[in-house]
Amino acid sequence: MSILKRFTIGSIKKNYPLAFICISGIILSTILVSTIVILVSTLRQYSMQYTYDVHGKYDAIIYNTNLQQVDLDASSRIVKVNNFGYASYKQEELMYINVIGVKNDYYDMASIDLVKGRLPENDQELLLPMNLITNSNEFHLYSTVELNLGYRAISNQLLTPLNDVFEHEYLIDEQKRTFKIVGFYKSSDFDQGSVHTAITSSYDYENSGYLLVAFDKNINVERYLHKQYPLHHFYINQPLQNMKNLVINDRDVQIVLILIVISLFVVLIASSALIYNIVAISYSYRFRQYGILKSIGTTSKQLLESIFIEMTLYSMIGIAIGLILGIFITREMLYLTTNLFKSILHGYFLVSGKLKIFVSVKSIIFIVVVMLIVIVISSYIPYLKLKRSKPMDLIRNQKPIKIGHLKDQGFLSEHLGIEYVLAKRNRKIDTHKYQIAAISLIISIVLFITSTSLISHIQKVNTRLSEYYTYDLLFMSDNQNLEDLNKIYQQFILIEDIEEASYITFSFDKATVLTEANKEIYVYIAYVDDITYQKSIVANGIKKGDGELYYDLAESYDASSKKYMRMNMLKERSVMWISNRQETLHLNYRLEKPPLGIDKFVADVVIIRPYSSYVKHKNTEDIMQFFFRSSNHNYVYHRMQDIALDLEMNDVIILDYGENLDGEHARLNIMRVFSFVFVFIFSLLAMVSIFATVRTNILQRKRQIAMLNSIGISRFSLHRMLVYESIGLVFYAFIIGLVISVALSYGIYKYVYPFGVLPFRISLSSIILSFIVSLFIVVITIYYSLREMDKVNIIEIIKHDLM
Amino acid sequence: MDMIKVEHLNKFYGTSDNIIKALDDVSLTIAKGQFVAIVGPSGSGKSSLLHIIGGVDQATSGKVFINELDITKLNSEELAILRRRDLGIIYQFFNLIPVLTVEENIQLPTLLDHQKIDETYFEELISLIGLKPRLKSLPYQLSGGQQQRVAIARALMNKPNILLCDEPTGNLDSANSVEIIQYLKKTNVLYQQTIVLVTHDEDIALMADRIIHLKDGKIVKDEVLRR
Q1: Class of domain B2-224
Q2: Which of A344, A415, A439, B154 has minimal Cβ neighbours within 10 Å of its Cβ?
Q3: Chain B residue with minimal CA distance to A710?
Q4: What ipTM is given for this predicted complex?
């Protein structure tokens, strides 16, 4: 082993606490970087899988072509589809069914999601899209359907499903075919226009039809196909292209990505600062040794070699442990938040399957490379300083003190004694080291205050949101046939997990308030089912006499009190005239608790009547809606969909407000988990950094401590000196952290809530808590440092000087 | 009256196989106001003896009395107070606090004791060491001799009964060395302090009232030059 290697390993052994701190710093930094990278790659993988599930795995569909005409890249996958032709099915408007014949590979490539029935097994059977059920009453499961199939053409040009329906288009080569409907599938992306795709099983591919192609290479599919086949029509699977090319249009996803990028940036800055600090400390502790080495002729290259050996050793251990811990922590975080993530993603994708950690070789390489770059930069800067220093300066290892450092004759200096003066001057002289320790602390404080403020804000917005809804599921339909509605309502209320239900027919009218200078307002007259109406009377403690029940809902934001105030549009006992109905209404009973289904989104004033009194008036488009409160909105939502399907009720809308609220709660909880983990790791980083700084300062000031000891400084006074130094550090970091937090929180608030649902507020409790936590970190550091300081032996130092 | 009394003092280093006896059953007494020089070759135990008397090092066995107080029974805090109030220690390498000015370095023992500065005495001290114009300077701005004068003034600041000097001239040229000893003699006369000076320089030792010769941890000669 070369003398230099022996020197390096000897130095590491001698300074093993510093080596330990350095490795800890690398571990923590690697954990942070790997957590972010693995999380991003997991979410990307999950989104990719979702895109495959929902939008299919093909990049494009090439219409009206055959295999001879295409010359695609050998690595591409191709699925052949027979085109049996088109049949028009709706008389009032021209709409087509395009029957295609496929083999089993099509179902996987196009991600066909069977809703009802089964897949076709021969070319006499047909699978129809769900759109057909909602658009027409002609198609029923296991019934037969006769289709007049031909090819769409206009001016002797064949058309494709992509072409709009032209007024003068016609079908050619028509022939009758009879199929048995064996199933329905969830309609595909390419199936949303006037042409719906019906699927049969075909075994006689005629080299003509459609081709579904998937490219293994990441290319611009649209540009490639247009260049290669300018005469063909294509359907591009845009969601998949967006996912592959990282095109993000969703604002929420954009926000999440921006936050991830910012987090990664902050993590890298903090990690660099920490590693730089520890490496600089490690070098400065050995300045004297390096000075001696330089003075006896060691070259800068040899010094660099020594540093390289040391940092390679630290990196190998630190990155390996950090990566393993990072994967473990991410896995646990995902385990904790997997359902929450799914709730959030549910808004965008109907997600199925588990959110499993995805660690690719690429992401591991990325993490290792990023960490190595951070380590190399962080250790090279202190090396440059070492390289430029003269041997004697390194041997002396004493920083020049400027007279400016002495200007501290103030109130605190007078009252806190010589210990404070010493602490302040020591800190001023080592400002650089303290600044780096402070950066980690500042990042922890900023992250904590900002995230808790944002979380508390979102929580308040959510609470506000949940106040608006008295129900979690809403059902409405274009079909306002009372018999049909009653049939489906009776089945709905039998669904287990429904806690409360109501039906309301809303009628919208303009009213003149006779008791308030004939002012005109808009009102809803809500005909609530009689049971709910009676419940409402009881719940509001009303002894019903003559007059109407009403709910005065309108609210507005009052800037002075910073609260939402009920506007109270109407005074007590108002009288109004509704000309459309030729009725005078006496509003005698104002409800404080509205019946299920009346919420703050409805209108300004709602008049509540029992459904038994409902009479339809001319010029009103009354709609009946059902409202439900359930203990499991997901289950109820799907059951309601099934019931509507079974009853073949078309054009229904079921809104799951519970899902929205769940999504909001999930978003909040994910933020909580992630901010907790990040704040925790950053706090550890800050602790390591402060440890390193304070400990090294003590090591470097051993002589000063020994001198003070020899002239009789008490242990208490020494401790005080150190406490003042540490408090100064926390105070400095806290003030800067607070200013940045307020600015950052305000920026995020303005970006996330541009219209300010609630006023901007910074969480006071998080400020206090962050100060306490910072102090706690410092107290631990002080405790550790005091132990170190107590070990300082005066005689050893004096002997060292004599040597 | 004995200001310092040492009884059967032993200081051993190393393990039983390879034991080094820095002090081997040393006993001595030093009277109040006496200026004693301890001389001996390197490794004779003179610095060890001084450090143990100064309470900055611990003896393996034996007793040390300062003004009839057995300091071997004191804990570290009591020793710190003793060093601060009753002892002044001067080292070869001055050991000034680099971040404090000359003035602050001198006043440090009083400031650490949270006492008020006796301005008259302070003026007297700085006149004695002749550093009035350099009070606001930092240690690194002074020469070696000047730094040692600051160290002497600091050691005298709390009017200690005993001044312990560990090779105070070891890092100085001969002119500065003589000057420093002159200062020590002056304070010895002025403030009636007991001074114990460790040196390997025979000429410096001859300026003391009494010379104790140490060799291999034992007192080999104890001569009184003047009373």
Answers
A1: alpha beta
A2: A415
A3: B56
A4: 0.73
